[in-house]
Design brief:
There is one protein chain. The chain has 273 residues and is α/β, with parallel strands linked by helices. It has eight helices and eight strands. It is globular. Bound molecules: adenosine monophosphate and manganese (II) ion (3 copies). Residues 13, 38, 63, 129-131, 146-147, 150, 155, 246 line the site of adenosine monophosphate (AMP).
Length: 273
């Protein structure tokens, strides 16, 4: 079964319109898809979930912090009409708006003007995020590409990496669970944590009601997959997998090209399949 439970549309920092993304997933013979925009469920107003070609599971990627590190929690298979979830998404949207002003102020202190308006041009009306600032910094010549903009100004530990606004881990997990969903730790290898730190995070995540982790995120080596599968089993978690697709220009995160989970993993979709 071809499963992709992590990807982004242009309603957050992805390149494709939700309908175009679903068409691409169908073309790539994805059987089960969840779109997980950053702190947004707006894409589900634009797509039909009752298509015969593909099973669509509701999803979101919520931003939070743990010990002052930015962490992402994917919520899957939630009731999108749940009041607590809707209030949570609104709270995170306000946090994004406030954060974007602070990012703009930080960038201003480097002499870069009008960054908020500049970044907003790239959002297409969706959720604003650091990648939109990165594109503007490239536009004005402050960086030669998006990666460099992150490295200099927006990435972990840089001036524009503002993360105080997010709801805490306990809160985001409870929004997902109260809406009937499963909370999944996103891309555990992308936090630059030691195995010890990651285990501490997982222990706390499980204690707070987290139930899954991404054993596969984008393209990764088989040894990383085995290592994540071991952690997943150790903590008694359900295993998820997703491309973290943002754009067709990024072959390392290709929609619908996610390898199969190791056979000893309990897939997260055993919850609803
Ligand atoms: P935000 O949700 O606004 O904090 O932005 C985080 C997003 O920025 C991630 O989901 C990635 O899509 C992107 N991102 C994070 N780090 C980098 C990086 N070093 N280079 C390019 N894009 C990045
Ligand atoms: Mn992103
Ligand atoms: Mn993420
Ligand atoms: Mn993502």
């Amino acid at each position: 079964m071809n499963v992709d439970l992590h990807c982004h549309t242009n309603l957050s920092d992805g390149a494709l319109d939700p309908r175009v993304l679903v068409d691409l997933a169908v073309q790539r013979r994805v059987d089960m898809l969840a779109i997980t925009d950053h702190d947004s469920i707006a894409c589900y107003q634009q797509i039909s979930r009752s298509t015969g070609d593909i099973q669509i599971i509701t999803g979101i990627e919520l931003s939070t912090t743990w010990r002052n590190r930015g962490i992402h929690i994917v919520g899957l298979n939630m009731d999108l009409e749940n009041t607590g979830l809707l209030q949570g998404v609104n709270r995170q949207s306000r946090a994004r708006a406030e954060r974007s002003q602070k990012i703009a102020e930080k960038l201003q202190s480097f002499g870069f003007e009008n960054c908020l308006a500049g970044a907003e041009k790239y959002t297409e009306g969706g959720q604003i995020g650091r990648p939109h600032f990165a594109r503007y910094l490239v536009e004005i010549g402050a960086a030669t590409n998006v990666q460099q903009a992150f490295k200099r100004y927006l990435g972990a530990g840089r001036a524009g990496d503002i993360k105080q606004q997010w709801a805490d881990l306990e809160q985001v997990i409870s929004w997902i669970r109260d809406a009937g969903g499963v909370a999944v730790l996103a891309h555990p290898t992308k936090y630059n944590m030691t195995r010890t730190k990651l285990s501490e995070l997982l222990a706390e995540f499980v204690a707070l009601g987290g139930e899954g982790m991404e054993v596969i995120s984008g393209s990764q080596t088989p040894s990383v997959t085995q290592s994540m599968a071991r952690l997943c089993q150790q903590f008694g978690l359900l295993a998820s997998c997703g491309s973290d697709f943002h754009s067709p220009q990024q072959p390392w995160a290709a929609l619908g090209k996610v390898p199969a989970l190791p056979s000893h993993c309990v897939p997260v979709w055993s919850r609803w399949a």
